[in-house]
Amino acid sequence: MAIDNQTFTAGATASSGVVSGPVVVRRRPGRSTWLPPLLAFVAIVGVWYAIAAGFDAQKRGFLWPYPHAVLYAAFAEPTAVSQIYPALMNTVLVALTGLVIAVVLGVAIAVLMAQARWMERSFFPYAVILQCVPILAITPLIGSIVGYNFVGKVVVTVIISLFPLIANTLFGLQATDKGQRELFQLQNASRWTLLAKLQAPAAMPSFVVGLRNAAGLSVIGAVIGDQLMGQGSPGLGTAIAVFSSRIQAPETWAALLIASLFGVAVFLIFGLLGRLAVGKWFDLG
After folding, report:
1. Confidence check: pLDDT of 75 > 80
2. Percent of the chain at pLDDT above 70?
3. What pLDDT band is residue 138 in, cutting at 50, 70 and 90?
4. Cβ(254)–Cβ(266) under 8 Å?
5. Percent helix, strand and coil across the chain, each rounded to 5?
6. Angle at 127 between CA 271 and CA 124, to 5 degrees
7. Long-range contacts of range 25-34, CB-CB < 8 Å, 24 or more positions apart?
């Protein structure tokens, strides 16, 4: 366990009878935060080059490209770039639209279930079922109902990213201090006052965690929905499918790389927004 700016007071020893004073153990800031990820990255790149060299030696280099070939296709190769980045913009639109709808629905459902235990017992099992339904199995059904277009992709994104918002927001609303709730009840506070002035502020840290997780899932939902729907404005899912069907390994991995970077960026941005919102009084980890 890392020790940072913690003070320990040693007791008297039986042998020497000396009482030691407070000992402050300090860890040099930033020393171990970047080194392990950097070493892991170097190891991953080294293994990737080794695997690519093995495929290349077997005359199958077209199946596993070298990392530098992937980077070139992702950022410099004109044909690949002209397809990947317009597709990225379409994926961003689907992901953000689905995330906004999921936030509205998730918070509304959580607030409804937090009003009474019977509401939670009635509706929460269906939220769990929605989370457990294999999205690959119901995507054709979604497409046949709402269409294999932008709306269908957004519906897939909402389904994938909805549950973390419901579960975390509901947990936060129900985790308020019992004594504080009783104090509001003694003052004859209405349900709206209890929700607005006690439960909602207390639920903010849990909501932010759910939002951060849902933001990452929305990217996955947008890519999967685009790949399975296959119609409308092409996104990264369609680009990955097209490159893969043409056995263009560098371009396929490049599209995967851009999708992953987009997911990481969304996760970090919403994590930063969460820290700015509640980080002053609650550690989000």
Report:
1. yes
2. 86
3. confident
4. no
5. 75, 5, 25
6. 105
7. 27/2, 27/3, 32/2
Adjacent-strand bridge partners of 23: 8
Helical axes 200-229 vs 135-146, angle rounded to 10°: 80
Closest CA to 4 of 36, 26, 24: 26
C-alpha closest to that of 114 among 31, 192, 32, 224: 192
Structure tokens, 100: 């906004």
Rounded CA gap, 187 and 169, in Å? Answer: 25
- pLDDT, tens digit (0-9, with 9 covering 90-100), for 95-113: 999 999 999 999 999 999 9
Distance of alpha carbon 217 from alpha carbon 186, whole angstroms: 42
156: nearest Cα among 90, 89, 214, 98: 98
Length of the chain equals 285
What b/e string do you get for 141-159 counting C-beta neighbours within 10 Å, with b at 16 or more? ebbeeeebebbbbbbbbbb
From 99, 118, 228, select the one nearest 164 (Cα to Cα).
Answer: 99
User: In which element (H, E) is residue 22 found?
Assistant: strand 22-25
What pTM value is reported for the model?
0.80
